UniProtKB/TrEMBL annotation:
Catalyzes the attachment of tyrosine to tRNA(Tyr) in a two-step reaction: tyrosine is first activated by ATP to form Tyr-AMP and then transferred to the acceptor end of tRNA(Tyr). It catalyses: tRNA(Tyr) + L-tyrosine + ATP = L-tyrosyl-tRNA(Tyr) + AMP + diphosphate + H(+). Homodimer. This is Tyrosine--tRNA ligase. Pfam families: SYY_C-terminal (PF22421), tRNA-synt_1b (PF00579). One of its GO terms (molecular function) is tyrosine-tRNA ligase activity. Belongs to the class-I aminoacyl-tRNA synthetase family. TyrS type 1 subfamily. Coiled coil: none annotated. Its main location: cytoplasm. Residues 332-415 form the Tyrosine--tRNA ligase SYY-like C-terminal domain. CDD domains: S4, TyrRS_core. It is an enzyme of class 6 (ligase). L-tyrosine binds at residues 34, 166, 170.
Length: 419
């Protein structure tokens, strides 16, 4: 199966500029292709990840992927998908963001020389205003630019000249890579179609109508209920483990709806048709086992964070389900209990009843605290405590950083210890 046929099977192609020509090209040679990302933030989220999964598939099929970090374009802002002007970042912030994104890309694509990261600041910053207007601006028809969806959608509220010229700058990117690196294919989201075709038009004007340059976009990924994919209750699901912990990342995929899981397996994993068909059967015959969701979570978490992160996420998941939290590390506690009710108290030893009421406010009264203890409803760091005279020692577990209280079967509280 060719790479294009595989992408079709995965439902990962929205539009192609020349389907037959691209199919012939990828069968004939190792093709240079690229995806761009502007450093508007210091981390990608999983919505950003989709075109890079396509780029990774091309890499594994023996093609030559390029990643363009938009050090120049990111400093002015892409109008795509925005109803108002972007707030311009300082160049220091842009440089910080591009350094962070570069590290994420190196992790995802490896450092074995089979891909290349470039920064469009390296060539766009060298073009003078007069050269920009004479060599490129003259080749772009304003009427055509106004008809591009990314611009047309902004005409009612207005668009600055800065953002209006974005498509020219992105076109120069494609032209530069075509000319200097033999890059013939640009991949992007569905909203990038206008920018991609503008780049191909520029190449044809400068290199001739028979120049082999192609564009491919991916569909907007929607969930079964029609909502946009990629966010959890807490907002974006980030690739940066400091923003979204590996455990939270793993849990996001575990919680995938049965109706969405096969689609996401096709998009976000490198499992083959037979493996995914098996999981599709599992969803249909015994969905309660959630085999497809578990495999999805394992595959994507390993791709983004590595195997150790999968093991850690599974360890936390098992501990929370069973209530056996004593074996968790302080780091795992930080991840697993991040969104649970928490309070900060002193490190002093204290009578447990008083501590539950006065310090942590977990119990509403001493009477209720004694009753819950007597009934075996309180666990401290995974151990059931029934003695109303017992003391709590905040320094006894988890490096003295936390005490985990479970009240009843499912209610957990994270008590942080101040030192």
């Amino acid at each position: 199966m060719s790479i294009i046929d595989e992408l079709k099977w995965r439902g990962a192609i929205n539009q192609q500029t020349d389907e037959a020509g691209l199919a012939e090209l990828v069968n004939d040679k190792a093709v240079g292709l690229y995806v761009g990302i502007d450093p508007t933030g210091d981390s990608m989220h999983i919505g950003h990840l989709i075109p890079f999964m396509i780029l990774k598939r091309f890499q594994l099929a023996g093609h030559r992927p390029y990643i363009v970090i938009g050090g120049a374009t990111g400093s002015i802002g892409d109008p795509s998908g925005k109803k108002s002007e972007r707030v311009l970042q300082t160049m220091d912030q842009v440089r910080h963001n591009q350094d962070c994104l570069t590290k994420q890309m190196e992790h995802l694509f490896g450092q074995d020389g089979t891909f290349k990261i470039v920064n469009n600041y390296d060539w766009l910053s060298k073009i003078s205003l007069l050269d920009f207007l004479r060599d490129y601006g003259k080749l772009f028809n304003v009427n055509n630019m106004l008809n591009k969806e990314v611009v047309a959608s902004r005409l009612e509220v207005g668009i600055s000249y800065t953002e209006f010229t974005y498509q020219i700058l992105q076109s120069i990117d494609f032209m530069h890579l075509f000319d200097k690196e033999d890059v013939q294919l640009q991949i992007g989201g569905a909203d990038q179609w206008g920018n991609i075709t503008a780049g191909i038009d520029l190449i044809h004007k400068l290199k001739g109508g028979d120049a082999k340059a192609y564009g491919l976009t991916i569909p907007l990924l929607l969930k079964e209920d029609g909502t946009k994919f990629g966010k959890s209750e807490g907002g974006n699901v980030w690739l940066d483990p400091e923003k979204t912990s590996p455990y939270e990342f793993y849990q996001f995929w575990i919680n995938t709806n049965d109706k969405d899981v096969i689609k996401l397996l096709k998009y976000f994993t490198f499992l083959d048709q037979d493996q995914i068909k098996e999981l599709e059967t599992a969803v249909a015959t015994h969905p309660e086992k959630r085999e497809a969701q578990i495999r999805l979570a394992e595959e994507v978490t390993e791709f983004v964070h590595g195997h150790d992160a999968v093991v850690e996420a599974q360890h936390i998941t098992k501990a929370l389900f069973s209530g056996d939290v004593a074996d968790l590390t302080a780091s795992e506690i930080e991840q697993g209990f991040k969104k649970m009710p928490s309070v900060t108290v002193s490190a002093d030893k204290k009578n447990l009843v008083e501590w539950l009421v006065d310090d942590t406010k977990i119990e509403s009264s001493r009477r209720q605290a004694r009753e819950d203890l007597t009934n075996g409803a309180i666990r401290i760091n995974g151990e059931k405590v029934t003695d109303t005279q017992a003391e709590v020692d905040p320094n006894s577990a988890f490096d003295g950083k936390f005490v985990i209280v479970r009240r009843g079967k499912k209610r957990y509280f994270l008590v942080r210890i101040a030192h």
